[in-house]
Amino acid sequence: MNKTFKFRLIIWVPVILLMTACSQDVSKERLMFVSSLFTGAEQYKNLNRAYKIFPTSKLLASNEPAPFAVAQSIDLPSKFSFRGSLVDVEEFLSRTGTSALLIVNDGKIRYENYWLTGGKDVKWISMSVAKSFISALVGIAIEQGYIDSVNDSITKYVPQLENSAYEGVRIKDILQMSSGARWNEDYSDPDSDVMRSAKILAIGGSLDDFSASLTNELKPGTFNRYNSTDTQVLGMLLREAIGISVTKYMQEVLWNPMGAESNAYWLLDSENMEMVYAGFNATARDYAKLGELFRLKGKFNGKQIVPSNWVKSSTTPDAPHLMPGENPLSDFPMGYGYQWWIPDDSDDFTAIGVYNQFIYVSPENNTVVVKLSANKIYGVSDEASKLSEEETVSFLKAVTGLFTVPKHSVTVE
Questions:
Q1: pLDDT tops 60 at residue 22
Q2: At what angle do helices 228-242 and 130-143 cross, to 10 degrees?
Q3: Is the dihedral of CA 109, 113, 117, 119 positive or negative?
Q4: Other C-beta atoms within 10 Å of 191: how many?
Q5: How far is CA 356 from CA 30, 100, 279, 370, in A?
Q6: Torsion of CA 187, 162, 166, 50, to 10 degrees
Q7: How many Cβ atoms sit within 10 Å of the Cβ of residue 186?
Q8: Crossing angle, helix 284-295 and helix 130-143, to 10 degrees?
Q9: Helix (H/G/I), strand (E/B), else coil: 302
Q10: I need a surface site. Which of 48, 49, 157, 256 has the fewest CB within 10 A?
Q11: Under 8 Å between Cβ of 350 and 339
Q12: Partners of residue 80 on adjacent β-strands
């Protein structure tokens, strides 16, 4: 054997073995992350670093960052009412694994606090809060002429979805979680559709292929069935209609214009497709910017970023199956718009992610609240998850209610 070759072999064999071991360790960490979800295990040491565990694409902080002004800090209420009982706020924040709480009123920070592994510069995973960002991008893409109308069939732009549940389905019905696809979003069931989708990040695979594998069950536009893959196919729509990745488009038309202060990350599948239904990672302050943007009817940082009519449509249920309250045509008691939840018949609307991630917007009180969390009971059962979200909405209403201005009075700083 040639001595030079033998020397190189001696050098490279341990390097290859080390790389293989590292690769196995990375895969094991990803699998452990996904496998631990919705089991009751603590997650606050995971949700703050998901972008360090999985493959990602990166959005850079805006070249014109627009930090919120900071005004006099407020005190949180000591208690709030939920289902006829008073709940202690400190106990609630601790019990729900709160990592960040940020309150912005009239564009100014009035409260900001972090716990556990949270922090001002921590990029916390959005979970389904990501869906509301995707809604904004679809609205912008329509305004820019890449997509003609929400009444178009999605397969006009994404032929990969022909012969699937999404063939011929209107973009609007997909935006409103009413695609009619057969789907199980039960986080406590390891074999549910949503968990099978999540495992793609752990073991590899294609979110496109998974989306195209779904079959139809219901007539589109008649029943509000929450389905994370509905959002994933909206990501496919953006990519195919515009011709660039969701990351690049978001950087250009949303992240830069709204003055994001920090870098952010999208989790990617094996084909470099963003996990648009849950895989965004950003800071609390930058999450709040999306809420403030929608509170201001799409105008923020001196620019009309999202069309005002899109904001209105996104936050207004417009069909019987989308109305809030007990509804036989919906899986959930909250109403739904274009990837935003409508908790009741007030003007409030909210983005919600599992483990209690919230961007809550109260236009009447000029207030946006971001709550990032690692609520370990989430997903242990469907009832526990719904109860947790309902309780959190009650808390957020109590917080935004601090800024209620009586009619014919003036605001005093």
A1: no
A2: 30
A3: positive
A4: 8
A5: 22, 11, 15, 10
A6: 40
A7: 17
A8: 50
A9: coil
A10: 49
A11: no
A12: 87
Give residue 14's pLDDT band: very low, low, confident or very high (50, 70, 90): very low
Give the architecture-level CATH label for domain 34-403: 3-Layer(aba) Sandwich (3.40)
- Per-residue pLDDT of 86-121, as tens digits, reads 999 999 999 999 999 999 999 999 999 999 999 999
Alpha carbon 36 to chain centroid, angstroms: 20
In order of 107, 110, 346, 397, 402, the CA distances from 410 in angstroms are 17, 18, 22, 21, 14
For residue 87, the model assigns a pLDDT of 98
Strand ranges of the sheet holding 280-282, from the earlier edge strand across to the other edge: 56-59, 264-267, 280-282, 124-125
Grouping H, G, I as helix, E, B as strand and the rest as coil, residue 35 is helix
Residue 78 DSSP one-character state: S
Question: pTM for this structure?
Answer: 0.92
Question: Per DSSP, which regions of 284-327 are E strands?
Answer: 299-300, 303-304
Task: For residue 316, give Cα distances in angstroms to 214, 344, 347, 363, 409.
Answer: 28, 11, 9, 13, 29
Which of 408, 81, 13, 56 lies closest to 267 in space, CA to CA? 56
To the nearest 10 degrees (0 to 180), the angle between helices 193-203 and 228-242 is 60
Strand, coil or helix: 102: strand
Give the list of residues 6+ apart from residue 250 with CB closer than 8 angstroms, or none.
59, 133, 137
Does residue 179 register a pLDDT over 90? Answer: yes
- What pLDDT is recorded for position 188? 83
φ and ψ at residue 193, rounded to 5 degrees:
-60, -45
Q: Give 368's strand partners.
A: 104, 361
How far apart, in whole angstroms, are the C-alpha atoms of residue 288 and residue 274?
22
Residue 5 has pLDDT above 80, yes or no: no
Across the chain, mean pLDDT equals 92
The 3-state DSSP class for residue 104 equals strand
Backbone angles phi, psi at 385, to 5 degrees: -65, -50
pLDDT for the residue numbered 301: 83
Q: Which tens digit of pLDDT belongs to each residue from 220-254?
A: 999 999 999 999 999 999 999 999 999 999 999 99
pLDDT at residue 275, as a whole number: 98
Strand order in the sheet with 349-353: 69-70, 108-114, 98-105, 367-373, 357-362, 349-353, 341-342, 335-336
Residue 49 has pLDDT above 90, yes or no: yes
Which residues are paired to 309 by β-bridges?
Answer: none
